[in-house]
Amino acid sequence: MRYSKKRKNDLTGKIRKCAGGFIVAGVVVYAVLNSGSFSDDGPSDEPETAAFPPVISTESGEDITEEAGDQVAEDDQDTEDDSSTTEKEAVATVPVTPPAPLPEPVKLSPEAKLADCLTASGARLYGAEWCHHCQTQKAAFGDAVGRVNYIECADKSAANGQATACRDARIASYPTWIFGDGSRVTGNRPMWELARNSGCEWEG
Questions:
Q1: What does the DSSP 8-state code read for residue 122?
Q2: Residue 155 pLDDT class (50, 70, 90 cuts)
Q3: Prior bond to 99 cis, omega within 30?
Q4: How far is the C-alpha of 183 from the C-alpha of 197, rounded, in Å?
Q5: Tens digits of per-residue pLDDT, 49-91?
Q6: Which strand ranges, in their side-by-side order, compose the sheet holding 124-127?
Q7: Is the Cβ–Cβ distance between 177 and 191 less than 8 Å?
Q8: DSSP β-ladder status, 55-57 and 63-65
Q9: Cα(133)–Cα(139) distance, rounded to whole angstroms?
């Protein structure tokens, strides 16, 4: 079969185009095979996914990576350690005030002890301000006379000048001691006798 020169040129151009297309297709196939998109068993239908680091949630509601979470935990631990150290240092720097010494017990005099015992036993001393023996009896107790249960009988406002309490107790002379058991003595009495009559002790 004979072709004209023009026909030959057209066929030659088409052949070249086809050859070029085959070359391009071969390059593409070679590139795909070497890119790993296909396995030995053929192309994979599974979609490719990006490899992201594990994500954890914090107490504040934030999502952070596991590596960042480890760093946050380390920072929190460091903060707690620093706070604990600061508290220990603060406690260590607080000055300690020693307790105040206890006061020494008051040492009572023998007169004070006897006066307290007489009053506790129910003993009463009846006297009058104008009575000399009454003043002597009271003076025997010294500063502890205020501990004695003393009843003043002188009362100028009363009909016979005697207080009602003394009149009810039938006091006829001064001084008069009436003890807890109802017994009585008159006149200025020594301390040991008052102790004996009231069941107390005299240490003078």
A1: T
A2: very high
A3: no
A4: 8
A5: 444 455 555 555 555 555 555 565 566 565 565 555 666 565 5
A6: 150-152, 124-127, 176-178, 184-186
A7: no
A8: antiparallel
A9: 10
